[in-house]
Write a structure and sequence with these properties.
Porin, about 270 residues, single chain, twelve-stranded antiparallel barrel, two-stranded antiparallel ribbon, globular, mainly beta
Amino acid sequence: MKKNILILIILFSFLLSQSEQPYPPVTLVSIPTAGTMPKGYFAFENIFMNQGSIVPKFMIGITDNFMLGMSFGISNFIGDGHMSKFKSYPEVQIKYRLFDETETIPAIVMGIDTQGRGEFIESENICIDEECTSFEETSLNRYDQKSYGFYIALSRNFSALGNFGFHFGLNKNLSENDDNDDDINIFMGFDKEINRSFSLYGEYNFARNDDLYIGDESIEDILDRKGKGYFNAGLRWSASDNLMLEMNINDISKNNKVSDSINRELKVIYYESF
């Protein structure tokens, strides 16, 4: 009984100590939105992923419509095992808002994001006979989930018991195409404001550029995919004037055959203005 009362007190304290979110979401769980960081704002973001990996990112608002970012991944950062960088060079994020949102049209941005999700896979061994007694190394040079590359995103916000944002976009990966799958991809999602401090996210990445064949082996067999795309969800909490926390759930659709459970991530964002 006392434990339940303590939990209720903590939850009630969270709801009372609300801090407003300083700017619209730049991304949801993974998909880009038409939101940008305001001029003079910068943020340090860190995603804590499975297998002890982290992806630190720095973002800065150059103008109200133009922002830049840089990120890199480190595997086995937490726990045991040898730490290593995903790649020998950092990834980049560039976003420019072409049109601001009005009463009749959504906000529209174009951008580039070369940071994929999961670890970077240089090559994999595939079977070259029916019994799988012989293997051949196949070059992949891609992230477990490909980066969005070049994209166009649209966002429209509605007032419905707090803000409700709908997001839609197209993207084409420009570099992770050793699997010969360079289709234009589709993504969409929403964010719903619960109160000033909490927002709920949901998104779907169709992963149309992740379902082709390499010779006689499908990418589903090599990387253990089901061809369902990626359905993700998350909860963002503006914990203080300079800190936001996100608890994200990835691959609810279980597109990745390797894992029997959903993938949980923690995202920590510290932001400031100058």
